[in-house]
Design goal:
Largest sheet: 6 strands, antiparallel
Number of helices: 4
Order of helices and strands: HEHEEEHEEHEEEEEEE
Structural class: alpha+beta
Mean pLDDT: 86
Strand content: 25-35%
Helix content: 10-25%
Shape: globular
Strand order of the largest sheet: 4-3-2-5-6-11
Low-confidence stretches: 12-23
């Protein structure tokens, strides 16, 4: 009886120990909630959801949602519906797009969403510094000089000057996203 209790206690500790950082999740636990329809009404948003290697940012400024790519910007008014249903724009907004290659385990690319904030500045310096899009599917932080590869799961692709001498690099925060039937939903 006592041996059985020790064995069950050991199994419980083993399960708890494995969940503390030995396992990682693809998606962030930060709150994010955003929905937009019809996607076809916003050319920038439609393009980044349907064209491989195209990316845009989604931000909220002065009561308007801004959908910005490298070449253009579309805007939509924040309606009363968003006040009733609520929305969370992550730390700084979103980077949304269709990678130019599929992730490991997938046969085709899927629409992907990252937070617009530099994850390394947020973790190491507790600041929310917005990234800027660059050609080729990259996002750059002007504060720490890191560049992230949006087509490769948001990992750091160039350490640049590494202004703040970060010793380890974390990928961008990623959110769950659904795109289908002319509806885009980001929900974490």
């Amino acid at each position: 009886m006592r041996l059985r209790g020790l064995f069950l206690g050991f199994l419980l500790l083993l399960c708890i120990g494995c969940s503390d950082g030995l396992t990682t999740s693809t998606f962030s636990s930060l709150p994010a909630k955003f929905s937009y329809t019809p996607v076809t009404s916003m050319p920038v948003l439609y393009t980044c959801c349907n064209s491989q290697g195209e990316w845009c940012t989604i931000t909220l400024k002065s009561g308007k949602f801004l959908f910005t790519s490298l070449t253009s910007t579309d805007e939509a008014l924040q309606t009363a519906l968003y006040g009733y249903t609520g929305f969370y724009m992550g730390l700084c907004g979103f980077i949304l797009g269709l990678p130019n290659m599929p992730e490991l385990g997938y046969d085709y690319p899927i629409v992907t969403c990252y937070d617009l904030a530099c994850s390394n500045c947020y973790v190491n310096r507790s600041v929310t510094k917005a990234l800027t899009l660059q050609t080729g599917g990259y996002a750059h932080c002007s504060a720490c000089d890191l560049t992230y590869n949006l087509n490769n799961q948001g990992i750091v692709s160039s350490e640049g000057k590494n202004t703040y001498s970060f010793e380890t690099f974390r990928p961008l925060y990623r959110y769950r996203v659904y795109y289908g039937n002319d509806v885009l939903t980001i929900n974490n």
